[in-house]
């Protein structure tokens, strides 16, 4: 897990914005995709990102993780990072001066072009996070993620820094750290050499706008349920046709929104194909 690759490029040496203990024995390849995370809980990282394929890629320097603790940027004796919402109301709002200072720190050494280095705020009111967005983020040089807390972030920060709001779904979390880990995981796995099998990303759910077809393995019969005969036939063309049909059926049944978009791109009637 900690072996350094022998021929993936030269290692770069740079100042880190994250706690030193997260950097122990982890090289960083020059130009490696980097996630900078502004959070009140830097100890939450790398979390699940430090395990399995993403963890191995992190250890190998294929991508890098930097946390920026928001608390030191706070105001006053108690390093306050929030204040009451203007106009009244329950809860607290992250201050613009505090978050702005943290974003200025996070911007050091990054390109100004938001296409090359997006700044993302995990927010329930943001655009839904989808696979095409994961591809876009993975193709950038890196990303800065704001993990919100309390009632949210002062709107002026979002406007001033060109922050992109992204949501994982129509639900509310206590903070953005879990959402940030999910977004990073979905993006990092698309970086070349992280998975080790590029075909896996090409065949999985959402790669063509469809849910993935059912998967089976040995034994051929389990609790009276058999693997479909077509998958044991060895006829690859027929297997591919079956898988496509199953993917379309599942998508039409479970995600009508995806099915309509899929049909629209192909000039098909989403209410047709009754056999699906």
Describe the structure.
Homodimer. One of its GO terms (cellular component) is cytosol. It catalyses: guanosine(37) in tRNA + S-adenosyl-L-methionine = N(1)-methylguanosine(37) in tRNA + S-adenosyl-L-homocysteine + H(+). Its EC number is 2.1.1.228. It is an enzyme of class 2 (transferase). By secondary structure, the chain is of the alpha/beta class. It has two domains: about 20-190, SPOUT methyltransferase, trefoil knot domain (Alpha/beta knot, 3-Layer(aba) Sandwich), CATH 3.40.1280; about 205-265, tRNA(m1g37)methyltransferase, domain 2 (Trp Operon Repressor, Chain A). About 30% of the residues lie in helices and about 15% in strands. It has eight helices and nine strands. It has helices spanning about 50-60, 95-105, 130-140, 155-160, 175-190, 200-205, 235-255, 255-265; strands spanning about 35-40, 65-70, 80-85, 95, 120-130, 140-145, 165, 220, 225. The strands form three sheets. The protein has a five-stranded parallel beta sheet with strand order 2-1-6-5-7, with helices on both faces. Strands 3-4 form a two-stranded antiparallel sheet. It has a two-stranded antiparallel ribbon with strand order 8-9. Strand 8 and strand 9 (about 225) form a beta hairpin. The termini are far apart. Mean pLDDT is about 90; it is low at about 1-20.
């Amino acid at each position: 897990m900690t072996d350094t690759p022998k021929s993936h490029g030269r290692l770069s040496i740079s100042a880190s914005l994250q706690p030193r203990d997260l950097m122990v024995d982890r090289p960083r390849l020059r130009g490696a995709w980097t996630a900078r995370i502004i959070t009140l809980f830097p100890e939450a990282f790398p979390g699940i990102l430090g395990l399995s394929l993403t963890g191995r890629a992190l250890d190998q320097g294929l991508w890098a993780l930097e946390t920026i603790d928001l608390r030191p940027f706070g105001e006053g004796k108690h390093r306050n990072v929030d204040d009451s919402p203007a106009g009244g109301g329950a809860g607290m709002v992250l201050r613009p001066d505090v978050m702005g200072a943290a974003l200025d720190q996070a911007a050091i050494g990054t390109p100004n072009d938001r296409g090359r280095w997006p700044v993302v705020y995990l927010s329930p009111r943001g655009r839904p996070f989808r696979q095409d967005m994961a591809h876009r983020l993975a193709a950038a040089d890196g990303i800065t993620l704001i993990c919100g807390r309390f009632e949210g972030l002062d709107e002026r920060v979002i406007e001033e820094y060109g922050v992109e709001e992204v949501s994982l779904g129509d639900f509310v979390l206590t903070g953005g750290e879990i959402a940030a880990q999910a977004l990073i995981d979905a993006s990092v796995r698309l970086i070349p050499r992280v998975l080790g099998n590029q075909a896996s990303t090409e065949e999985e759910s959402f790669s063509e706008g469809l849910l993935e077809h059912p998967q089976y393995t040995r034994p051929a019969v389990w609790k009276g349920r058999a693997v479909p005969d077509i998958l044991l036939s060895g006829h690859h063309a027929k297997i591919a046709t079956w898988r496509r049909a199953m993917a379309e059926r599942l998508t039409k049944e479970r995600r009508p929104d995806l099915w309509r978009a899929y049909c629209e791109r192909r000039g098909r009637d989403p209410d047709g194909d009754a056999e699906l």
